[in-house]
Structures are given as C-alpha cells and as structure tokens.
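User: Fold this; tokens only.

Assistant: Input:
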Amino acid sequence: MELQAVWPHLRPDSRDWLIAHNGEALPPSILADVLAANGGSPDSSWWSRDDVGRLGLPDDAVDWIESVANGEIAA
C-alpha cells in the first residue's frame, strides 16, 4: 500500500503534523497512526531511519506530502 491510499485513513491531526514536519522522524503518536492506517505493515519500504535510528517516512512519501502541502496534487 502507498501513502496516497493510507492518507485518508490518518487522523486529521496526523496529516497536519506530517505536512508541518515533513521529512522529520515520526513521534510515537504519528507512528502509531500510520501503522494503524497501513495495517501495521513492517515492510521496510514504508520506513526510513535517520542517523540516530528513529523511524520516518521514505523519500517518495516525503515528496508526495510536499506536493500535497504545496497544492500540486489533491490528497
């Protein structure tokens, strides 16, 4: 599943946080919401890690969120 398919299932506050903090490591509440929305997928294609090992979203998801934030695509 891709972020585009999961996006509508995220809480509005999670979507707002992802837009405001795009590319940052995910805090536990946002991570839990993304996991719940994607069925708890442990698939590594869903996740990236920063230099201290915190989970975040991969580059393609970050790029997609940026496009949504800039109004380039509808979510």
